[in-house]
Specification:
With about 450 residues, the chain is mainly alpha-helical. Among the domains are: about 170 residues, Tetratricopeptide repeat domain (Serine Threonine Protein Phosphatase 5, Tetratricopeptide repeat), CATH 1.25.40.10; about 70 residues, Serine Threonine Protein Phosphatase 5, Tetratricopeptide repeat (Alpha Horseshoe); about 60 residues, Alpha Horseshoe (Serine Threonine Protein Phosphatase 5, Tetratricopeptide repeat), CATH 1.25.40.10. The protein is about 75% helix and about 0% strand. The protein has 24 helices and no strands. Helix 7 packs antiparallel against helix 8, helix 12 runs antiparallel to helix 13 and helix 16 runs antiparallel to helix 17. The protein is elongated, with a radius of gyration of 33 Å.
Amino acid sequence: MKCELHRYVLMSVAAIMLIPASALGKISTRERNKAVNLYNQGRQLYLRGQIDAAIALYRQALAIYPDYPRALANLGLALDRNGKDEEAITDLQKALSLTPNDPIIEGNLGLALYHEGKFDHAITAYRRALAINSSDAPAWNGMGAALFAQGKSSDAISAYKKALEIDPHSADAMNNLAVALNKQKKYSDAIALYQQVLAADPNAPDTLLNLAKAYGDSGDTGDAIQTYSRYLAIRANDGRAWFQIGRLYAGERKLDEAASSLERSAALDPKQPETYLNLAYVYQDQQKFDQAIDAYQKALALEPNNATALLDLGNAYQSKREFDQAIVTYQKALAIQPNFPDALYALGIADESKGQLDDAVVAFQKYINAQPGDSRGRFELGNTLFNQGKYPLAVDSYRDAIKLQPGMALAHYNLSMALARVGDTKAAENELDTARKIDPKIGPAQSGSSH
């Protein structure tokens, strides 16, 4: 979730006064006035969002008077806005060296340090700003964001609440407090704060995005989808939001909507493997196996060592009864993760389906070693041994499966078939009776893994 930080823009009223008297002899009155005018023009451009143009004018002012604190401070702020955090920090620190104990410059330095990921230093800058002016709501908000970035949610909440005591209408502080509360799973409190922000600004996109996430985290899928839709009506090119709403639709089994949303996400942000993976899952649920295979392959082109994606691709091939491709794909997964239980099990099924029974036995035995407490591997090993005509070994394997899962009707039924093949008629009848007590519908006509 995005934290909202306030940026200060230094006012121009005191700009001339901030030039030290000792410096006046170094520049003429004309030059001084020119520097001030350039600074003021830059500030106006910054306020209109013309950041590059503002930077150019601040630099022109500084070319005339290099130690102009306001120009340095606002240049640092503009550079930070453009993501040039290191340059911003340098200019803001120089501004502070010229005008120590300026809480506004300290606050903007804290912001630049925060964006640079230097959270300890950012907190120090914010504390210096607050030591000068304890009623500085943006500084409390900024310190909260830095604390939150360090994982100190409770301390961050305290800082955000302090900001709101000073400025109860601060949308930034309300948003950030809601993010921290959501992190602590206090969903109703977070949602209430987001709604308070939206009451004043119904189309605030970042707030809508955070509210949608809070609804999703709280399990309120319907409101989450509705809120993501409101957000996407404003920011239709946010691939990540399309991804999130696609996942929510998939969870609601609205597969057409899920596929459409995830396709939109992939078109906007084609470098995200998880988008293709989720799209593949939806296609697979829709029985669109060719499209699922294509989506898995796109995910693997971005993340070739994803063993789980290879397993899922193999399963898609197996759904199409393309067993050769499935086997090769499962083997690739196992080359990456040799004891991957699900890949071993799926490989055994594919080998058995293709009639490669010896290979299936090896795969199921490896699966049993990896998952000794799972009855499925012993059951499928029993089936493979039965199909090989190794009935005594099949009997042992079915019995092992039943020990782990006594209520497994198919294991009792298949055991009865194996016992009949070894001539133990009475035991076979007993197992058949047990199978039918568990599942009265079980019998010779049943398809699947029974014999």
